[in-house]
Write a structure and sequence with these properties.
With 445 residues, this protein is an all-alpha fold. The protein has helices at 4-24, 29-43, 48-83, 85-97, 102-113, 119-126, 129-137, 141-156, 163-171, 178-203, 225-248, 255-262, 264-276, 284-287, 289-316, 320-329, 336-353, 356-367, 379-392, 402-411, 415-420, 422-444. It holds the Pfam family GntP_permease.
């Protein structure tokens, strides 16, 4: 099997192949991803039987976690839209913050939501608001979709108790400094979110995204605010409660039940049950029809997302981790240079295999054996190292990232449009995080 520079070149070629087939030649994303997956496995010299196993495990492993979550989230979003609940939430949202700041508001809601919730689930839950807020505010849906996606993405890799930063902290010996990581993460997240909103307002203006509902319903026919918000708020609160419980290490009465209810699958299932309360009638047209339409919307997303998982599975079956560890083992880095190197490793892994969480975990695992030799010892330095890896883990989101497909499919964004807007914004977000981390290092160091 290939190692060293030849393996690196093969991975780069596979990424280029995805982009060329999808964005340039217009090949369906499923075929683009599978073609690049097979190319990478064959070019790397994987055994044919091992290649098939890696593809199946990558596809099935991702579907095993995100599959039903996408289905339930899609059903919730469809019911919110059809019942008018999304419109009710938009009215309440805009009356609270004013019509002049809908993009910033959507991004802030996303950033708060993504602290306890995976950004994929968060976008699925909240994406139904985009149409309604666009109608109420007059702001283009593309601006709102990009703002929401960027807000969710910002805290996903920076602020515990999101799993990725927690895992990175544990690997690097910074588990006792989660409070410091959260505080510094929020400081870095704020300018990162503002940069993303600034770009979303400009890049989103040229996006023409379809609406799920062409006309706004009459205000008098809308469901109450409490019923409208419950399908969104319930799963968010449950998932957040479970994350806090794990963070505090609580193991008292009721822990097992709360951890069960806080699993994203169960939380979104309960959110779906709450969404049934929004149906005007409990008959076959709604219980079967609306739910069936929600399931149909989830189908293409699941297939494409699974193909991205297959690509990641093949990459993980190559010696890419050994390549990175070998290049760092002989050290020679210090201070801000360590933060830059950590960022670049995470960015490479993120771009290559798609998962931000995997990039956080793999990069921190590679650095763990040499972190002391690299000069990272005190709580602030270790916290900034976690954040630097987190910044790299958001650079960039493209065709092999499940979140890329969740954003494009749930907003109606074409792939070419997504590369010119969403992917560019994630690159800017990552660069902003790196700058913020370096500034904090020089100020606090």
């Amino acid at each position: 099997m290939l190692t060293g520079i030849p393996l690196l070149l093969a991975i780069i070629a596979a990424i280029v192949l995805i982009i060329v087939l999808s964005a340039r030649l217009g090949v369906h994303p499923l075929l683009s991803l599978l073609s690049a997956t097979l190319f990478l496995g064959l070019a790397a010299g994987m055994p044919l039987s091992g290649l098939i196993t890696a593809i199946n495990e990558g596809f099935g492993g991702l579907m095993g976690y995100i599959g039903l979550i996408v289905v339930f989230g899609s059903i919730i979003g469809y019911i919110l839209e059809k019942s008018g609940a999304a419109h009710r939430l938009a009215i309440a949202l805009l009356s609270s913050v004013g019509k002049g700041r809908p993009a910033l508001t959507m991004s802030a809601i996303g950033a708060i939501t993504s602290i306890p919730v995976f950004c994929d689930s968060g976008f699925i839950i909240l994406s139904g608001l985009n149409d309604a807020v666009a109608r109420q505010s007059g702001v283009k849906k593309g601006v709102l979709a990009l703002s929401l996606s960027a807000g969710l993405y910002t805290t996903h890799t920076l602020v515990p108790p999101t799993p990725g930063p927690i895992a990175a902290a544990g690997n690097l010996g910074a588990a006792d400094y989660l409070g410091t990581i959260m505080l510094l993460g929020l400081l870095v997240a704020l300018p990162t979110m503002l940069v993303a909103v600034f770009l979303a307002k400009r890049l989103g203006q040229r996006l023409e995204l379809p609406e799920l509902v062409a006309e706004a319903p009459e205000t008098g026919t809308l469901p109450s605010l409490g019923r409208s918000v419950l399908p969104i708020l319930l799963p968010i609160l449950l998932i957040a409660a479970g994350s806090v419980l794990k963070l505090l290490g609580y193991d008292g009465p009721g822990t097992s039940l709360l951890l069960f209810l806080s699993h994203p699958l169960i939380a979104l299932m309960l959110g779906t049950v709450a969404a049934l309360w929004l149906m005007p009638k409990w008959d076959s047209a709604h219980l079967s029809g609306w739910i069936g339409e929600g399931i149909k919307l989830a189908g293409p997303i699941l297939i494409i997302t699974g193909a991205g998982g297959a690509f990641g599975g093949v990459l993980k079956a190559t010696p890419v981790a050994d390549l990175v560890e070998g290049s760092l083992g002989s050290g020679g880095y210090a201070g801000a240079g360590v933060l830059v190197v950590a960022f670049l490793i995470a960015a490479f892994l993120k771009t290559a295999q798609g998962s931000s969480t995997n990039a956080l975990v793999i990069t921190s695992s590679l650095l763990a054996p040499v972190v002391l030799q690299l000069g990272m010892e005190n709580p602030v330095e270790l916290s900034l190292l976690v954040l630097s890896i987190g910044g790299g883990a958001m650079t960039v989101s493209h065709a092999n990232d499940s979140y890329f497909w969740v954003v494009t499919q749930f907003s109606g964004m074409e792939m070419r449009e997504a590369y010119r807007s969403f992917t560019l914004i994630t690159a800017a977000q990552g660069a902003t995080v790196l700058v913020g981390v370096l500034v904090l290092y020089w100020v606090l160091g």
